[in-house]
Every structure is written in C-alpha cells, then in structure tokens.
Amino acid sequence: MSAVDTASAPPHALMPGDLMTRRQRLRLILVLGSLIAVGPLTIDMYLPALPAIVDDFAITSSTVQLTLTGTLIGLALGQLVIGPLSDALGRRKPLIAGTALHVVASLGCALAPNIAVLGAFRVVQGLGAAAAAVIAMAVVRDLFSGSSFAQVLSRLLLVMGAAPVLAPTLGSELLRWTQWRGIFVALVVFGVLLMLVAALGLPETLPPGRRQRGGVLPTARLYRSLLRDRAFVGLVLVAALAMSAIFAYVAGSSFVMQGQYGLSEQEFGFAFGAGAIGLIGATQGNVRLLRYYSPQRILVAALLIGSAAALLLLAVAATGFGGLPALLASLWLVLAATGLAMPNAPALALSRHGEAAGTASALLGAVQFGVGAVAAPLVGVLGTGAVAMALVIAGGLLAALAVLFLVVRPARLAPMGPEPAVVVVH
Questions:
Q1: What is the chain's alpha carbon radius of gyration, rounded to the nearest angstrom?
Q2: When you count CB atoms within 10 A of the terminal residue's CB, does the N or C end of the chain come out lower?
Q3: 335 and 249 in contact (C-beta within 8 Å)?
C-alpha cells in the first residue's frame, strides 16, 4: 500500500493491535522493550570503562572512541540486511539469529587482546544488535498505524529509556567488582536471556501472505521506492540528525564529566543516568500531547525547543558560566526536546510504508546509526571537551530543523489522525 492509499483508507479501519486488551498491549511493550534494549546496553554500558581501556591498551581517547563508532557502523549495516530479511522470512528467525551473533561477539570483546580486535568484535556486536532494533520497530508497525503507532512507540521508549539510564550506572557498578572485560561478560548473559525472551515471548507478527519476495533485485527495488519518497527520506534524516545529538552526548560525556569536571566512574554513571530523566519524561508526555496535537506539530515544536537549548548548551560550554550544574541543566533540556522528536519522526516516516515495515525500519535505523557513527568520533576529533560535544549536538539539531522545513515541509504531510489507516486483521 502506498502513502496515497494509506491516507485515503476508511477512517474505521482497524489494525491487529487495536484488538489487543490493555494487558496484552502491556506485555507486548515489555517484550519489545527488553529486545530493543540490547542496542543501548551495547552502546552505553562500557562508557565508564573508556578511560580504563585507554590505560590498559596505552592508546588515545580518540582511538577508543572508534570502538563506539564501530558498533554504530555495525548497527547501521546490520539493519540494512536484516530489515529486508525480516520482510521476506518473518520476524522471529532473523531476530534469534542476530541475537546469537551478538552473544558470540560479546564474548570476543571480553577476550580481546588489543584495541584492533576489540574494535572488530564491536562491529560484529552492532551487527547482531541490529536484529533486535529493526525487528522491534517492524513488529510495532505490523500491529499499529497512525497515532496509535506513535503512542505505542512512546510507551516502548519508556521501557527502552531505562536501558541508557541503567547501562552506564550498571557498568560503573560492575567496575567495582571486575575490570572492563567483565562488562562484556554481562552482555553475554543478557544476550542469552534475550534469545529466550524472543523464542518464548514473541509470536510471529508477519504471516506468509504479507511477506515480500526475497532476493537482491526485489530488495533493491524496494529500497529505491523508499528513497524516491521525498517526505520519507526527509523524515529519516530528521530522525537521524536529532539522534546525532544523543550519540554526541554518549561519545563525549564520559570524557567531559570525568576528565574535565573530575567526576568518578560511579558519579559519572549517576549523572549520565539522571540526564535521561528528561528524555523519558518527554516520550511519555508525548502520549498525552498526541491526544490534542498532531505528530507533525509536536515534531516542529520539539526541534525548535531543542535547537534553542543546544545553542544555550554551547554558550555554557564556551563560557563556563554556571559550571557543571548549568551544563547538565542545558543538556537535560536538549534530551527532553529530543525525547519529543524521537517517537514522532519515525512514526510519520514508517506510517507512509506499512507494506514494507521491516525494510523501511531498517533504512530508518541504518541512517540513524550511520549519522551517529559520524557524530561520535567527530566529538573526539574536535577535542573531547564540553565545547566539542556541544558543537556536535547543536549542529545536529539545527540541521534536523533545516531538513524538516526545507525537505519534509510538515504542512504538506497527510494528517495522521487517531484512527489507523490499514485493514490487517489476523
């Protein structure tokens, strides 16, 4: 079904998720939340250990940041492959296979003898984690559409938001009892539990009759049709550029807070976790806002606020005014604004292509993590200080705002009302 077909569907159309009870929907969100958490845990849990890895391997801080870049590259490339596979084979098989790959790669990271091997296994870790990231989004799109999609995605982000909150804190606590390699052992254990959750708690949501034909040429044609949709491409770029602010924060925060402001590993873990409060609160506030405003309007407001907050952050970082409290306050405002943008940009993009949810979600995720792979080392190249981090954050949000108005043109988007737009009941 094309974007035009979706917009013209009857207002009484129902998606499978609309037939779920509240308890069934909650269980689905918890299962998908646990699956999608593997990405943030893989990215964030070793952040407090970055200075220790620098000392252990006698390398520079910019070199160790490349291991983060490697993970983001793996996440981007993995989604481009797994998305079409999930549209052709169903959701469960690629998910379980990708999670198994993540377990093997985590074990390799734990045993890595040097930074090169660690970086290589971090790429493979990203490839495995991509399965959970793209398929969780595709499952939500299999079951929901329109504003219902954005509402469920906001609830999912509440569960998913706990991962970046807990990951650095959990990593810092693990460092009390073990060295940095123990963090990757913990990821091995989590990956095994994740496979059990996928095998026992997630039914197949894409029946054979709705699957795409496999093969290179059909996949290439599908990607080409997505890339010819100007609004879809623009919304994907908006989502990716907004997320680049998060990746810049992730890449630079440990060096800024521990190196520049002198926090311990444990203090950094708590400060990093506290920063996600605004993000999580905003994603949940988005559910209420969707009762009164369209996703388009919320997205515009979020990026305007986020851009202003990012400029304030840059001013605080450059002048040192207010010290660490002022820096954290402006960062939290940036995260809150990004939390409002995060559910709405993907919901607007994916609602245009429900017939290829896996591939569309893969392209969305690949561009997000691809932009993140550029943003993360850029912080290190610029100097790993507060000014460098703030420059990348502000640049990403201002670019997202420009793409929204110049490419997407939100006023021209078809309205997304509270009713779903496709009849698929099974």
A1: 20
A2: C
A3: yes
* Phi, psi of 37, deg, nearest 5: -70, -20
Which tokens hold the place of 181? 């390699």
Residue 419 within a domain: no
pLDDT digits (tens, 9 = 90+) for 237-251: 999 999 888 888 877
Residue 287's SS3 state is: helix
DSSP letter, residue 37? T
Cα 189 from chain centroid (whole Å)? 22
Does a structural domain hold residue 426? no
First-to-last CA distance in the chain?
18
d(CA 376, CA 368) in angstroms, rounded, equals 12
CATH number of the domain encompassing residue 38: 1.20.1250.20
Question: Helix-strand-coil percent breakdown of the chain, rounded to 5?
Answer: 85, 0, 15
Q: Report the alpha-carbon distance of residue 189 to residue 234 in Å, rounded.
A: 38
Tell me, yes or no, whether 420 lies in a domain.
no
Tokens 């990012």 sit on residue: 310
What's the total number of domains in the chain? 1
How confident is the model over 141-150, as pLDDT tens digits?
788 766 677 7
Full residue range of the structural domain in which residue 284 is found? 3-412
CA distance 71 to 42: 8
Entry pTM: 0.68
Q: Are 226 and 289 in contact (CB under 8 A)?
A: no
Amino acid identity at 270: F
Q: How far apart are CA 349 and CA 360, in angstroms?
A: 8
